[in-house]
Amino acid sequence: MYKIANIFFILLVVTGLTGCGNSHDPVQKQVQKEKSDIEKAKALFRSLRTQVNGLINLDDNGSGGFLNSEADRLGRSLEDVMLDVGLVGQYSGAILNTILDINDDTVPESTPVEAESPEEGRVIMLQKRTALEWDYNITQDGASVGNGTVKLPDENLSDLTYSNPDELNASLLGTFPLNRVDSGEAPGTQNGTLELSLQKLNGTASLLTIRKLAVTSNTAQIELSDFIIKTILNDATHIDYLILDSTKIKAVVPGYLFEGRLSLPENDYVTNPNFSQNGGNIPSRLIFNGSLKDTNTSARITGDLQLDWLDAATIDMSEGAPAAMHLKTTLSGVLERPSYQDTSVTLGYADKTDGTGKKVTASYQYDTTNVTLTGNFDNEMQNGTIEIDSTDDIKVILTVANGELVYGSQSYVKRGDTVIGTIEERNGVPVVMYKDGSFESLQ
Fold this sequence. Notes:
With about 450 residues, the protein is of the alpha+beta class. It contains four helices and 26 strands. It has a 24-stranded antiparallel sheet that branches.
């Protein structure tokens, strides 16, 4: 039996139907039209089947298609890559705040200085080498979970007193804890290279701007540049507000290269009264633009990925991020593969804000064929309906029950108001059964 995950891309094949009639006799015209529709449908099935089967696995027992395999391989490659920009910002802000406060040549260069840690249970120790260079060490229960060096340019020397509000520019090379204390996971470390500046706003708050951040984790590398992260640190530990915009990203993980830009627009923040950090401000939209290349096959996906958090302003955040968030994901772009014609694909997935189910949308273009798919399902994605429309006035109506396609009269293909075929099952294989008795396998 075919599961619901297989149905979507089967349907992309089904909707390739086209047809026309040329006879001047009314009866013959209808016969010729039906024959033309069916013959053209079969020809189009043959041409699209190779393309679609190459994109996704249509057989539960067969090998995975391109999108299946790529998603699986990319997921495995990213398993050991983690980046917590907020955590890096808090720790680097605490370090620079302390240096800004005490670097007045009154502290002996060999005296360790304890900075205020952003998290209870961790300690940051600073060792002053010179006025321009400091070492830091972050410990948890006596064990080091991060260490490195902070370097200051010469031109900042006159601005390093607590009372001077000018910017302190710095570069930081070292490691930071990978996880927060209360995460329940082993601390781990993330290697980071940062270019950043810190400006005192008043006695308790500072404005931290990170201009460049490069992170290495095992065999993976992520570099963020040409961007702005602005964080207001209250008492050097609490993030009151965050702006992340126009980030240039280059990520290299085993077998993949991602290059593009990241935008978290300032005007897409919403206020949630249940959220204690960021002054209650929560980003509701995240936008990626760029390309993902498989360096083994030279296949590339180029386009935009947008993630919208639909209930960011109302969801209960009193105990942190909840497991059930209502999200909407939209992917639009072009898939380029060797030996295949470029394929334009747009995919959408969203939780209904009233919690009653999920909606899946897709549009697909190959040669002159344009297809639009809309699926409405329950929360478990086991029951629902799927409607597909093509530019040739072809419509497919399908019913899904308990995760399986319902064959027969509830799953059919029509052009205009005329049904020209139904989806049937033959020996476990779904087929389009045409009105003239012929059929076309979807495998």
